[in-house]
Specification:
The structure is a single chain. It contains ten helices and seven strands. With 271 residues, the protein is α/β, with parallel strands linked by helices. The chain has a single domain (12-269), classed as Rossmann fold (3-Layer(aba) Sandwich), CATH 3.40.50.150. α4 crosses α7 and α5 runs parallel beside α8.
Length: 271
């Protein structure tokens, strides 16, 4: 299996620290920006790609500016999003950023080995969701892998509403991420599978689906209460990384029990 990696950061500013440069550089490369809940999101993808050969052409749709899949699966990838923070991208050299819409991916038909979209479709209307997955199916190879993950089900919606209400009471503001989720009707795991199946059937005819439950609802709520609603002590983020990253491989399989916040659909063309 791939070792989950936090990516790399700029370390030139550490040069003046002399003999401390090497230890600090190693620490930053190991620990920078690693977040337990994001590592859990990408764990099934890391496992799925573990036996795949080097040199795969991979695309992360809706990746954002923090490296997307490349921050947790150390393989190069293209990343599509509508905008990017170019300064942040400098910390993620494995990601080749392409500013574009998921509804019109600037790639040729059947040119990519792996195409994934994680925690993005819930921000879109139902018509846009189908459009994005249809585009993903267009650009993946007939022997490739399509991966779509999103929050699903009544338990996930209830958890989002709980955090959004508490955040609004504390801050007087709409939650910066969940507010957009709540503008659209929550879908079920069956709805997500149907969406991927519809796009795959139109593109390939025959296909195989595998659904992986991802991140227990209680685990998701714990992290959101701690970091969205709580007032963590200064340095707590680094301390949780120091404590949890070495234990991650042992903890991860125990944190995906249903009911889960997210479902991930893996689709392979063919029978």
């Amino acid at each position: 299996m791939f070792r989950l990696d936090a990516g790399r950061v700029k370390t030139g500013r550490l040069g003046r620290l002399g003999r401390l440069v090497s230890p600090l550089t190693r620490y930053q490369r190991w620990n920078w920006a690693w977040r337990m809940e994001i590592a859990l999101r990408y764990q099934p993808i890391a496992d799925a790609l573990a036996a795949q050969p080097a040199g795969l052409r991979m695309l992360d749709v809706g990746c954002g500016s923090k490296g997307g899949v490349t921050s947790y699966v150390p393989r190069p990838a293209f990343g599509v999003d509508v905008t990017f923070d170019r300064e942040r991208l400098q910390d993620h050299p494995l990601l080749t950023a392409v500013a574009a819409s998921g509804l019109a991916l600037p790639f040729a038909d059947a040119c990519l080995d792996v195409v994934l979209c994680m925690d993005t479709l819930e921000h879109l209307t139902p018509a846009e969701r189908l459009g994005v997955v249809t585009e993903m199916a267009r650009v993946v190879r007939p022997d490739g892998l399509l991966i779509v993950g999103a929050p699903c089900g009544a338990a996930a919606r209830a958890a989002e509403e709980e955090i959004a209400r508490a955040f609004a009471r504390q801050t007087g503001r709409v939650h910066p991420k969940l507010g957009e989720h709540l503008e659209h009707a929550m879908w079920s795991a069956a709805d997500l599978q149907k969406l991927v199946a519809e796009a795959a059937a139109a593109r390939f005819g025959a296909y195989r689906l595998r659904v992986v439950p991802n991140v227990n609802i209680g685990v998701w709520l714990f992290w959101r209460r701690l970091f969205d609603l709580g007032r963590p002590l200064p340095g707590l983020t680094h301390l949780q990384r120091l404590a949890l990253q070495p234990l991650y491989r042992w903890l991860a399989p125990r944190l995906h029990q249903e009911p889960t916040y997210r479902q991930i659909v893996f689709c392979r063309p063919g029978r």
